[in-house]
Specification:
- By secondary structure, the protein is of the alpha/beta class.
- It has 3 domains: about 20-220, no CATH class; about 235-300, no CATH class; about 305-405, Roll (PH-domain like).
- The chain contains 11 helices and 18 strands.
- Strands 1-7-6-2-5-3-4 form a 7-stranded mixed beta sheet, sandwiched between helices.
- Strand 8 and strand 9 form a beta hairpin.
- Helix 1 packs across helix 2.
- The structure holds zinc ion.
Length: about 425
């Protein structure tokens, strides 16, 4: 543990959402639903009443609003990462939030979810645990199947489409999508949560969580007229498919380009890319992203993946704000992450082995320092690590974390998140 700060209290039981706050959540949510002409289709939901577990895909803040409209007129408890509580713990506790640290195995979280279920409320969770980087499904941990079995209540999914193209993680401002769609669907009855095995539950769940927002946009011809629509795309598409150079992509307005070979791509109003000169290798953004993943996978298979950078580190021990820990050295390689630094004269070293992280959270232009960072957690701390210089991409670090986890073997169920 670095420093002697007061830690966020995970033991504290979640409160039921205060009755007077439920209409406030509606007042915040419905205008956005109407403004974006969001349709919510309900499948198999006849007769389904709280308590149930609601699992949602996660692309932007709009998700909370559409989810609130989808469960109307019921209230809920929400699993929220503690950075979502920043300076607002009193409010989030009253609104029914259950605090957690991302990608950390927590039995307290399960206890708190059971507590919320016993109150008869909906328990809402975003099992991808982070915003999708390019509008496609993220990894779901095996532990989700385990607590679905433990809870033994109906499991409902809410898969929302268009939220990524409307407000992508790499450039969060709203982009004026002409409409949105989502589906609230019963995935498991309480009987099925008991009769199916954890593997069967996870297989069905992963199938339900397959989505691709850019394919949805293209197929539905959802127009994004926003003139600055490609700005920020280079954060995800950090490698040039023409010359292979990494970390030298740029984007502004509706264009993306490589600073090394000069190739340029235009992003259409329907989210498709086309090379300004010559052949378009990837018109579909998620295909480009998956190509980058394959390149990272190759480096890992060959044992050559390695990153060593100096970094600025902030800690979030509780919800009252960041503690600046100063400079440190971050290494990410075949042995996982190592962070070495000194805080108030005391040297520290934190390590995360490949098998302990099936994924990691990253931020683009994170508000606290207006820079990209990696967010690594221990049981008592959340560390925001900002690599310095320009020879890195946090997207590549996230891809490498997932590929290292896969490469180092089958997950040990006892340790999986
Ligand atoms: Zn290039």
């Amino acid at each position: 543990m670095i420093g002697d700060f007061k830690r966020f209290d995970m033991v504290k039981k979640p409160k039921r959402q205060k009755r007077y706050l439920t209409p406030v959540t509606w007042a915040v949510s419905f205008p956005s639903k109407w403004a974006r002409r969001a349709k919510i289709k309900k499948t198999g939901m006849a007769g389904i009443k709280p308590p149930y577990l609601l699992l949602c895909n996660h692309n932007s803040f709009l998700d909370f609003k559409i989810m609130t409209a989808a469960i109307f007129p019921h209230r809920a408890n929400y699993v929220v990462a503690i950075d979502g509580f920043l300076h607002m713990e009193w409010l989030l506790r009253r609104v029914g939030a259950i605090g957690n640290r991302k990608f950390v195995n927590s039995t307290l979280l399960v206890k708190n979810m059971i507590h919320a279920k016993n109150n008869g409320d909906i328990v809402v969770m975003f099992p991808e645990a982070r915003y999708s980087l390019c509008g496609t499904s993220a990894v779901l941990p095996n532990s989700v199947g385990k607590f679905i079995r433990l809870l033994g209540i109906p499991v409902v999914t809410l898969i929302m489409h268009g939220h990524h193209v409307q407000a992508p993680f790499w450039g969060e401002k709203g982009r004026g999508a002409s409409h949105l769609e989502s589906e609230l669907r019963l995935l498991f009855t309480p009987e099925e949560t008991k009769s199916l095995t954890v593997d069967e539950i996870n297989t069905r769940l992963r199938a339900a969580f397959k989505y691709d927002d850019f394919a949805w946009q293209r197929d539905r011809q959802v127009k994004i007229p926003h003139t600055d629509r490609a700005r920020g795309l280079h954060k995800v598409l950090y490698q040039c498919p023409e010359c292979g150079a990494e970390y030298r992509m740029s984007s502004v307005r509706d264009e993306l380009w490589c600073q090394v070979c000069g190739q340029r791509w235009n992003m259409s109003q329907y989210g498709e890319l086309s090379a300004v000169n010559g052949v378009t290798r990837f018109s579909h953004i998620p295909d480009w992203y998956e190509w980058e993943r394959e390149n990272v996978r190759r480096e890992i298979r060959e044992g050559t993946y390695s990153l060593k950078v100096s970094a600025i580190v902030d800690s979030l021990p509780n919800t009252r704000g960041f503690k600046e820990l100063g400079e440190a050295e971050l290494c990410h390689n075949m042995d996982g992450f190592t962070l070495k630094g000194t805080y108030r004269g005391e040297p520290y070293e934190e390590t995360w082995k490949p098998r302990s992280l099936y994924s990691c959270h990253i931020e683009y232009d994170y508000k606290h320092r207006r820079a990209d960072c990696i967010d690594l957690n221990t049981a008592t701390d959340t560390l925001y690590i900002y690599p310095q210089g320009r020879d890195f991409a946090v997207t590549k670090i996230a891809l490498a974390t997932e590929e290292l986890y896969e490469f180092t073997g089958k997950p040990n169920l006892a340790n999986a998140n």
